[in-house]
Amino acid sequence: MRLIGAPAFPSLVLFLSFFLAGVPRATAQDPGVRAAGMGGAFTAVADDGSAVFWNPAGLGTGAFFSLVLDRNTAEDGSATLIALGTPPLGLSYYRTATGDRANGRNSLVAHHAGVTVVQSLGDRGLTVGATLKAVRGVVGSGSGSSVSSTKFDADFGVMASGSLGRLGLTVHNLFEPEFTGPVTPVSLDRRVRAGISLNTSKLTTMSADVDLVGEVKQAAVGGELHAITKAWLRGGVHWNTSGADTAPIGSVGGTVAVYGSTVADVQVSFGSEQGNRGWGAGLRFVF
């Protein structure tokens, strides 16, 4: 496959992997029901409002207008997303909560309010984007007390598009913001994630993602099928590549058009008891 503008992509991946490597802190639940239904293999697919998180550059080659409202709930936390995306600009709010299975409490709840800007680099199929955001973090303790603070952060994305597919790279939590806690501070883990998507047919997309930098590194593969005129099916699997627990978590999901350009998304994630099983549902307005 030949993607226009892709020759410099491997060098960019390596550069960002080494430059951004640091001491990681904590990870958070990812937003986006459609992405979760593909096992999280979405970095090079992101083409709706959820691109503000998954790959800001995806807004440049995605839908003309997209409004997303959804929620994922899992054993390790939850994520709620409200996002509006257009090719040059995106607005978003999402809440991520990371919990401890042992006590059922959230150790960090982060409220992200962001503005996404996108720029195409000539006519070579290459776009870059950034989500600039204020993040209010609420750090809790086992005793029920909590402390909140607000920090600035940013996500960065690159997308190279061609007739056969796309390559994507995203840096999440670029500045790894640190939030004051009742006992010790907690910070969001910086992650560098690369992905590829292939248009295997007019109706099918296959994709794969891998984390290059982050305390918890994962790999994922997934697919999406436009089964009939008003319905889509998707599925995927992801697994931990950085620890002892490598048991995979599978996901299945679907989309149904409910009225005009409004569609409903659902997903269920299942598998190992040590994994992050859960479910999600939401609405998207896309045209």
Identify the notable features of this structure and list them briefly:
single chain; 287 residues; mainly beta; 14-stranded antiparallel barrel; two-stranded antiparallel sheet; 3 helices; disordered N terminus
Please explain how this structure is put together.
The protein is mainly beta. Helices cover 7% and strands 54% of the residues. β13 and β14 (249-259) form a beta hairpin. The relative contact order is 0.20.
Shape designation: globular
Main sheet strand line-up: 1-2-3-4-5-6-7-10-11-12-13-14-15-16
Mean pLDDT comes to 86
Percent of residues in helical segments?
A: under 10%
**Count of helical stretches:** 3
Taken as a percent bin, the fraction of beta residues is: over 45%
Largest sheet: 14 strands, antiparallel, barrel
The computed structural class is mainly beta
Over all CA atoms, what is the radius of gyration? 18 Å
Residue ranges: pLDDT <50 for 5 or more in a row? Answer: 1-26, 101-106
List the helices and strands in order. Answer: HHHEEEEEEEEEEEEEEEE
State the total count of DSSP E strands.
Answer: 16
Give the N-to-C terminal Cα separation.
28 Å
